[in-house]
Amino acid sequence: MLRLSLKMTLARKGRLFLTSLAIILGTGFLAGTYIFSDTLNSTFDRLFSDVFKDVDAYVRSSSFVEAEFGGEQRGSAPISALETVLSVPGVKDAAPDVQGYARIIGKDGKPIGADNGPPTFGGIASASVAGLWNIEEGRLPVGPTEMVMDKATAKAGKFALGDTVRINAQSGSREFAMVGIVNYGDVSSPGGATFALFDQPTASEFLLKPGFVDAFLVQGDGTVSDEQLTSAINAALSPADKLETITGAQITQETQDQIGAVLSFLTLFLTAFSFIALGIGCFVIYNVFSITTAQRLKENALLRAIGANKRQVVVAMMVEALIIGLLGSALGFLSGIGLSRGLSAMLNAFGIELPTTGLTIQTNRIVLTMIVGTVITILSAILPALRAGRVPPLAALRDTALENVGSVKRRVTIGVVAMLLGAGAITATAAGASNILLGIGVLLVFAGVLIIGPGIAKPVALSLGRPIEKLRGVTGAMARQNAARNPKRTARTAAPVLIGVALVTAMTVFAASVRSEVRTAIGDQFQGDYIVSSANRQFGGLAPSLAPELAAIPGVAQATGLGFTSVNLDGSGKFVLIIDPATASGLITFNMVQGDQSKLSANGILVSDTRALAKGWTIGSTIDVAMVDGTKKIVTVEGTFASSGFGGSYVVNRAFFEGTLNNLFDTNIYIRLVDGANSDQVYDALFGATTDKGLGTLQSRDEFIDAESGQINQILGLIYGLLGLSIIIAIVGIVITLLLSVFERRREIGLLRAIGMTRSQVRTTVRWESVITSMFGAIVGVVLGVVMGFVLILILADSGASAFSLPIAGTIWILVLSFIVGVLAAVYPARRATKVDIMQSIATT
Amino acid sequence: MILVRNRLKGMNNPPESAAASATNVSKIYGHDDSEVRALDDVTIQFEKGHFSAIMGPSGSGKSTLMHCMAGLDSLTTGSVSINGIDLGGLSDKALTQLRREQIGFIFQAFNLIPTLNAKENIVLPLSLGGLKGDASWIENVIDAIGLRDRLEHRPSELSGGQQQRVAVARALASKPAIIFADEPTGNLDSKTGGEVLGFMRRAVTDLGQTIVMVTHDAVAASYADRIVFLKDGKIAGEMFEPTPDRVLDYLKHLGE
Fold first, then answer.
1. Fewer CB near the terminus (10 Å): N or C of chain B?
2. Distance separating alpha carbons of residues B237 and B239, to the nearest angstrom
3. pLDDT tens-digit profile of A372-384?
4. How many Å lie between the alpha carbon of B24 and the closest alpha carbon of chain A?
5. Contact A577/A651 with Cβ under 8 angstroms?
6. For A369-412, how does the pLDDT look when each residue is reduced to its tens digit (9 = 90+)?
């Protein structure tokens, strides 16, 4: 029997291929995600083990603040500690290191490197053997007007020795003479980052604070182990400097782990989408098995008649599923290699530039992909196989395979119950229950819709087909009837479209609502005429000195900077917004519930009303704050403001950081012009002082609001792209179903051709059947998606249901695209239908 | 499209007594050693207003002849014309249009589209051409098959005999130049088959239609005006005003 089922499986290569296709695409995405993230991880791992390969010990500040979304900000080390480190026995040499923000401006006036791309570093180039850089050309920089840069950046910017190079950093924008080109060990530029390097005093002053560096890189003389060296340095350091020493291996590991944590977020995100794709693939596989089982009624009945028992028929089907699962997942893994490149390109296109070199393929990923793919195929095949086993030996020999829809009433009842349960779970989440319940609720609603599907497929398909019948006459009528003749099949084929469309619609609805909420929030909060914004949100930004410079431009009435940093607030790392209350008034407006924003003192803090409520803070409450450099302060709540959800929860005065070692940058600078000023003239002056020098982007208030609210489009685009693969699988599902239907109806098509149906009419019939099927999925999907989007807003948006806005254009687009999907999916099956051999299909003997 | 129509019309003009004719038609399957001559230089005409039958043992080429004359199968050599139109050189589109307008078909089984009701099946060739047809003629045909009360029924709700009567009505609906019937009663019991054959007979006698029927049933063949016998791809003989007994005798003689 095993050999028989092997033979029967392999005898139908076409069917084998079609079924495999769904699993290939599903597992391909999963494998692609794995390969992509493994490659990314190993690229970074290699990068950092390269960076620290000659570092035996690493001395840094022991005080740090954990940032709210992972990562940490660490304090600085006084340069005076270098002497101490050098005097420790076993230390061959030690070099100070700064990893600051420095943006090199190209000869065309544009900054080199993308805003959201690899970091742009500023650092120290020293002669010490413990330093990271080797001179390739020229010499080391000396004094406050000289710099060197890495070879790759020099090449990219076409810089040569002797050139004057403009660099933007925390302390402002300055020009330097380029005196050398350096290499990073053997690498010209690690990870695509750019490096501008100075001597230590210049680097400290320009990038950090005079007299301070970020760390010391220590090279041992080989007489003691790294661990012994580390503890010897630790013992020698002055406690007052608040420093700690770790081994080179530890700093390598720590950096790799930090990057790994960020990357695992991305991997999780991608994996979620690949599981959506797999789930949709499941439907396609289940559908194909169901159809082929129905079509194989005769074959299975014959097997039963000649003595095969139920179990053997079922086993034969399962063996087929096993073969398809193994074959499909193996091919899926191979296609995943290509897909991983595609993912990389797609993330690049959405501004997430990640260096990937080589290809990391792990055996356990291959095994995992194979297992997931095969198990999913087998699970999808169980129901159809059991159904095949129930075929009576003397099954009626029918011409067309028909699958019976059980009681419609029962179906709808079960479906509605599932949906109600799901709705209940979602409501519970809205009322504060765990998010797991939300997931279960969404799944239940989906399940309910899918269970009801076959029950409503017939009436829906018939009414969708009515205009087509009006339009196309008899071919339309036949398409309509064909779509409705097998409700189970139509519903199952439409299911992947339904799921894909529902997710896309939900995201669109959610994004549209968030967008309008962002617009209102930003519009309310920020007034003024112009805004200079920096895209470097995580690392670096605009120098705090820029805002006063702009305020001094004739025609400018007021300019104020808004920055943010991380501090340890009430025991955990938090983002705090930094304003200058004296200049902010009228430009940055918080919707104050209590207190006065312009009276914010140096040791005061404004807290959002929701946080204040949650923490029990009122005016006059005190909160402990620890800064990156270890400075501990106590702040007093001086006001509360209505949280907009996008403006942050804590606001402090810039003076709060006076005299500390925090790296402060402004993210945005808001500008108001003098009434009646010649705005063109002032704009030109502002432009010259900012964008023209590579310092941020100068925009009018409206432009800025558009850009900010448009940012969600970028994320939306990425999500659309990732859901795109699910849509492709849905198309493949329709193609497979249509092909099988055409195969099944070849006699009917032959008859139609004989009595006068032209080839183009045959095509029309298949095409409209496809369109009806995809539109069925799309319409139900849109309805479900709008409801889901509404629920998402209800749960996630601060302003609740009032934020809901229905993107009518977006919804129409989704329906139009689904229509196109239907037309595209029908192309190949329709062509196959026109090639039906009339003679063969009408032959009776 | 206009070109094709004109061409069909133009060639329609000269009066022809033959509804369909085949001239030196050969049909060869396979190549060289495995070559099978399904039709070997066959020349034959089917007159308008006649009910003809084609008979012959299995593999004699009777179905092939019918398929070739109906424009369903291609010829190896020779020419075929329907109502004076040479089928040679017609495009697939033109051939399809010709089948729709000039030819009616009745097959042994699976004659009707399961998703359409009886009425829709009857007018299907007309609807495919975007035509309404001659309403009173269609009403006559529907009355003649006696299924007026079953017009809204789908094929699965009709008996085998009723389905074949609907098929006959469909073949007649467009008033074609010729109707080809391939074993139309092969799947029916003799009583039901008799009804269908009687109806076909009346279509020729009373309504002036032309029918060519392939059959291996002597009783069915005896409804025809003329029988053409085929053997080994060649015409082996003819018989006019046949009776079942004479047909059986002839077939016995043919088989030897």
1. C
2. 7
3. 999 989 988 888 8
4. 22
5. yes
6. 999 999 989 988 888 888 877 777 665 444 444 555 566 788 88
Q: Which of A807, A802, A792 is closest to A520 using CA atoms?
A: A802
CB contact under 8 A, B111 and A839: no
Chain B residue closest to A477 (CA)?
Answer: B116
Please state the three-class secondary structure of chain B as a single string: CHHHHHHHHHHHCCCCCEEEEEEEEEEEECCHHHCEEEEEEEEEEEECCCEEEEECCCCCCHHHHHHHHCCCCCCCEEEEEECCEECCCCCHHHHHHHHHHHEEEECCCCCCCCCCCHHHHHCHHHHHCCCCCCHHHHHHHHHHHCCHHHCCCCHHHCCHHHHHHHHHHHHHHCCCCEEEEECCCCCCCHHHHHHHHHHHHHHHHCCCCCEEEECCCHHHHCCCCEEEEEECCEEEEEEECCCHHHHHHHHHHHHC
> Can you name the CATH fold of A536-695?
Barwin-like endoglucanases (2.40.40)
Phi, psi of A88 (to 5 degrees): -70, 130
For residue A103, the cross-strand partners are A168
Full strand arrangement of the beta sheet holding B234-240: B103-106, B178-182, B211-214, B51-55, B226-231, B234-240
Could you tell me which chain A residue has the CA closest to the CA of B184? A844
Residue of B67, B91, B92, B110 for testing the chain A interface, max A β-carbons within 10 Å: B110
Asked if the Cβ–Cβ distance from B116 to A839 is below 8 Å, we say no
For residues A371 and A24, what is the distance between their CA atoms, to the nearest angstrom? 13
DSSP label of A570: T
Phi, psi of A721 (to 5 degrees): -60, -45
Q: Show the DSSP H helices in A309-362 as ranges.
A: 310-349
Asked if A415 and A444 count as a contact pair (C-beta separation under 8 A), the reply is: no
What's the CA gap between A841 and A835, in Å, rounded?
11
Residues of A in CB contact (< 8 Å) with B are 399-400, 473-475, 477-478, 481-482, 485, 747-748, 751-759, 761, 838-839, 842, 844-845
The model's pLDDT over A667-690, given as tens digits with 9 standing for 90+, comes to 889 998 888 888 888 888 888 888
The structure tokens listed for A423 are 């709705």
Check residue A352 and give its pLDDT.
58
Which amino acid would we find at residue B195? E
Sign of CA dihedral A442, A444, A447, A453: negative
Question: CA geometry: angle at A572 spanning A570 and A576, to 5°?
Answer: 80
Q: Give A-chain residues touching B73 at CB under 8 angstroms.
A: 839
Tell me the chain A residues in contact with residue B67 when contact means C-beta distances shorter than 8 Å. Answer: 839
pTM metric for this prediction: 0.77
Interface predicted TM-score of the whole assembly (ipTM), two decimals: 0.84
Q: What is the distance between the alpha carbons of residues B223 and B227, in angstroms, rounded to a whole number? A: 10
* B2 or A514, greater pLDDT: A514
Q: What is the DSSP letter of A163?
A: -
Q: Are strands A91-97 and A215-220 parallel, antiparallel or unpaired?
A: antiparallel
Selecting from B111, B125, B183 the residue whose C-beta is nearest the C-beta of A756 gives: B125
Look at chain A and count its residues.
845
Counting one residue from A and one from B, how many pairs have CB atoms under 8 Å apart?
Answer: 80
Domains, chain B, ordered by start: 2-255 (3.40.50.300)
For chain A, percent of residues with pLDDT exceeding 90:
10
Nearest beta carbon to residue B100 from set A485, A755, A838? A755
For residues A605-624, give the mean pLDDT: 87
Q: Where are the domains of chain A?
A: 55-259, 457-525+706-845, 536-695
> How many Å apart are CA A611 and CA A250, to the nearest integer?
37
DSSP type of residue A691 = G
Closest CB to A485 among B63, B97, B115: B115
